[in-house]
Description:
Radius of gyration: 15 Å
CATH topology: Heat Shock Protein 90
CATH class: Alpha Beta
CATH architecture: 2-Layer Sandwich
Oligomer: single chain
Helix content: 25-40%
Amino acid sequence: MGTSDENAESRSVMYSSLAPGHRQIIRAAPVWQLPEVATCPHTAREQVSRTLRYWGLPGLVDDATLIVSELVTNAAKHGRGPVWHTLRQVTLHDTVFVVHLAVGDAGEGWVGGRVHPAGWEETSGRGLEIMDALASAWGHRRLATGHMVWADLLISS
């Protein structure tokens, strides 16, 4: 998988506009539609935390809940409702397993792929930087019904 921007060498993960080729879905959570209220990031964190603990993956809870919270916040703030999210445990290769998080909305998305660092004095604007630091891969894509941002978290063996 290649990177899509000139600054890729300064980043540790790969960005792609297309979701990675998942070979097999091991487990899948439902697609949750979130309420259009300020508590929707909290609701998403709870759903992801509960699901990962049920799947026996408590070591991913902190990173996954932070990522989903940032993505849901971005969708609620910049997108158009309804906001939804889901996660799956999938295989990328025979021995590589990831949790694939996806957050979407009915908006048009952003023309992006680049992580624009927020200045030290800014109180927001770090969501994609956080995801870039935590995810093994991430990206976004347009859907027939809106826009989706996805992130993969590597499952340690």
